[in-house]
């Protein structure tokens, strides 16, 4: 019996030892897996930091290269906006029709500006713009039967021209001569000439030129040295009783 007990005890001890060894092996491999996972995580972090540092270095190199270039002397700005249109249109009320004068504030305007940059702060030049339909007049045609119809009898086109300038604000704060972002103050002084065509007589008449003046704030971004986008908002005295004017467009630098 004693021998049997000893054998059973030995077998139990072997099982216990094997279990302990299994637990030890399991813990050891768990430790290895955790170490490997941490190393992999550290590798990811190192790779991300590597690319981040590389991006910063390339950006600084690009900024340094751009800052060393001299600014462009000539700029051509193609822009779009809207202007007020004076219209005499039929108004229907209480079964009667009358002609009334109104202002439409969404008449399309297309313009071009040429600027010469004297230094990294001041530039000046000329501008020219065109808008179709700045004056529209309707007339009431009454037939023999008393039927009324309205047709356009006069139609106006306006031409905008004058002197404009820009005062760059960022170079006053930063030392670089070439900056991708531009913040500037646009200034304009000019005239508006309107031609009116009368369809009944097929004649063309010119109104007396109207004075315009305005100044405001502009924002621009240069994708490359020669191409960029801009937007402006100006306050002042503008055509057809307008007190403010916005513009957006494309700028080409040479």
Instruction: Bin the helical content.
Output: 25-40%
Mean pLDDT: 79
Low-confidence stretches: 2-11, 49-69
The class by helix and strand makeup works out as alpha+beta
H/E element order = HEEEEEEEEE
The end-to-end distance, rounded to whole angstroms, is 109 Å
Number of strands: 9
Taken from the alpha-carbon principal axes, the silhouette is: elongated
Biggest sheet details: 9 strands, mixed
What is the CA-atom radius of gyration, in angstroms? 38 Å
Beta-strand content estimate: over 45%
Tally the helices: 1
Description:
By secondary structure, this protein is an alpha+beta fold. The chain is built from one helix and nine strands; from the N terminus they run H-E-E-E-E-E-E-E-E-E. It has one helix at residues 2-68, and strands at residues 74-93, 96-117, 122-142, 148-168, 181-198, 203-206, 210-222, 227-238, 242-253. Strands 1, 2, 3, 4, 5, 6, 7, 8 and 9 form a nine-stranded mixed sheet that branches. Strand 3 and strand 4 (148-168) form a beta hairpin. It is elongated and about 75 Å long.
Kindly summarize this structure in a few lines:
The chain has about 250 residues and is an alpha+beta fold.
Per-chain topology:
Elements: H1 2-68, E1 74-93, E2 96-117, E3 122-142, E4 148-168, E5 181-198, E6 203-206, E7 210-222, E8 227-238, E9 242-253
């Amino acid at each position: 019996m004693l021998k049997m007990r000893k054998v059973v005890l030995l077998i139990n001890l072997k099982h216990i030892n094997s279990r302990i060894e299994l637990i030890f092996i399991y813990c050891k491999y768990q430790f290895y897996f955790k170490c490997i996972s941490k190393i992999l995580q550290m590798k990811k972090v190192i790779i991300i930091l590597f690319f981040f540092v590389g991006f910063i270095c390339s950006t600084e190199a690009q900024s340094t290269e751009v800052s060393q270039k001299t600014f462009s002397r000539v700029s051509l700005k193609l822009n779009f906006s809207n202007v007020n249109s004076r219209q005499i249109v039929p108004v229907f009320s209480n079964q009667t029709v009358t002609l009334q004068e109104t202002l439409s504030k969404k008449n399309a305007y297309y313009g071009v500006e040429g600027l010469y940059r004297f230094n990294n702060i001041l530039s000046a030049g000329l501008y020219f713009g065109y808008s179709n339909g700045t004056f529209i007049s309707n007339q009431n045609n009454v037939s023999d039967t008393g039927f009324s119809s309205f047709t356009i009898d006069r139609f106006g086109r306006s031409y905008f021209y004058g002197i404009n300038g820009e005062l760059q604000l960022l170079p006053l704060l930063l030392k670089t001569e070439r900056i991708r972002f531009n913040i500037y103050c646009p200034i304009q002084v000019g005239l508006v000439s309107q031609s009116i065509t009368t369809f009944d007589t097929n004649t063309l008449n010119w109104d007396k030129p109207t004075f315009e003046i305005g100044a405001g704030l502009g924002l621009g971004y240069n994708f490359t040295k020669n191409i960029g986008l801009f937007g402006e908002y100006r306050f002042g005295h503008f055509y057809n009783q307008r007190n403010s004017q916005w513009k957006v467009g494309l700028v080409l630098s040479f």
